[in-house]
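Researcher: I've been going back and forth with a colleague about how Glutathione transferase might be arranged in three dimensions. Neither of us has a model we trust, so I'd like an independent prediction. The organism is Euplotes harpa, in case that matters for your notes. Sequence below.
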Amino acid sequence: AGSAEQPIAYDKVVIKIFEGDQHGAEFKKLNPARQVPVLVDGDFVLAESHSILRYLAESRALPDHWYPKDLRKRARVDEYLDWHHTHLREGVHTYLIKKTLYPVFGIDVSEDEFNSLRKILQVSLKYMEDKLSKHKYLCGDQISIADLSAFCEIIDTKLLPDVDISKYVLIVDWMDIMLAIPAIKKVHAGLLSQIEGSMKNMKAKL
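Model: Here is an independent structure prediction for Glutathione transferase. You can compare it with whatever you and your colleague have in mind.
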């Protein structure tokens, strides 16, 4: 949402990645990398979540706090976004995939690899906890697209019964703040249910 008063209008197209929709010919035309998400804005097609967030912030003239014009404030948001994919995402998403989906396909993952991913997750959580000790949100006292990206990852820990983030009290408080935003709560409540359902359906077919 651009703001509580003026959400960005969009048409959602669900790509069932656990059923292989991303490998279809039509989707491949949009993104040859065959990954989600993809944004189609008229004749302009854009992939990669952080690129999409930046594009929407600029093209829809969102309130400045989402992606600040101030060079140093923007650099702080970019710093988090660049860090995200090789740290928090690795610790959550990669761990989730290898923990829940690899066994379905008979792919073995060593305990050493799991331990390495757990370490990445813990280091990432400590990094976030430190950032939140200085500000209400990850990059300052106002919400930004960095918070949206991080929340999308952190919420997935709910799908991992062996991951407990309760000792990171500032992250837990931040999650409550994020979930108090109606649009965020609505999107992520539905998303978690959809992921769990898709995973169950895929396992049933194999």
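Researcher: What would you highlight for our discussion?
Model: I'd start with this: The first strand starts at residue 38 and ends at 41. After that, consider the following. Confidence is low (pLDDT under 50) at residues 1-5.
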